[in-house]
Amino acid sequence: MLFPDMISESSVPLYWKHPYQKEVTCAISKLKENDLQFNQILFYPGGGGQLPDTGVLVYNDEEYSIVTTYKDEEGIWCKVQSAETGMFEIGKEVILRLDWEKRYSFMKAHTAQHLFTHVLGKLFNCETLKANFEENWIEMEVSLKLTPDQVFEAIKHANEIIQSGTEVISIIVSQEEYKKDYKSKIRGKISEEKIVRLIQLGEEDGFDLVGCGGIHVENLSESKGIVLENLKGNFIKLLVDKHGFAFANKQRRAMMKLEEITQKKDDKLIEMISNKLVNYDILQTGNVKLLKMIFSKIHNWQKTINDYSCVFLEIPEIDRQAIQSAAKEIAEGVFLSIIGKNEILYLLSSDEKLPANDIVKKLLEITENKGGGNKSFAQISIQGIENPLKVVENVIKNF
Ligand SMILES: [Zn+2]
Fold it and tell me: How far is the CA of 48 from the centre of ligand 1 (A)?
């Protein structure tokens, strides 16, 4: 860690200087009822998608829970859970102790996310828009819809860097030094803070330099490795450390169960599943094509109710995704009611005067089922409703 003498020690949080410190003896420096500040900053106030630290305060030999930590313009506050208000005194010596397991878990996940963001940028020019953490997972929203193959390539690359024992360097500099030596090399947001904290992956020149006031491990190998939990659109959910191992083993167990049921071994099973998926894709594409055709020629089926052009269809094989993909093709000035998969009624309107969500609202008055949507696309469950298309027709008649 680089640490310039010119920056006063106490204003720098302990989680920057000594990231593995779990406990400190210090004094209360400010208070607002049961929210306390101390002359040493041990607890991280959250931010950058990470939850704030929690832990314990020892005051007059009694232990009190610190339920959360937050930052405002006056500094970093620890919220103490206590029966009485106003029992704490400024200047009093106390002990602070972190909920270390939780904190360390976040350190491992967050540092791995620095690396993964770097790798996605380098391999696919893909940016991380947002990252959220829980103790056992990282969820990232990224700028591109990556394929599973791309994500696994990035994970492989990141895991090689993790397993090679790459150092994580913490650099704390004044704004002047930052401008002079670092600003031009930064990935991500530029800092305007008086004291800037930088995180670099790799020693010497390293390969990823970002401004970050968060909590990190000192060596990437502590994260152990990254496992993909889920990929959905622009969202990637990752697991690290023991959580990743537990998940991988659980998946393997599920695979073995499938092997037992289908009596097909591993690669045979994978082949069978991927064939099914290909068939599913073909079916989906086929459905969308068919719907697009129907939607564009919809006037042929129309029925006029109070001057509104309405079309009623029942295609129980079709799901929401297919209907939404085809929705743009719908002819002008039409109100379409379509019963799809799982007893869901979809309402699509290209007629401004007859908003789909208003019709759903009317339907919700006569059923306890769930529903909602916007002017052009809405849906409602029709479970237990007799002749739902007739019901919609009546609602439009009285609209
Ligand atoms: Zn960070």
Answer: 8
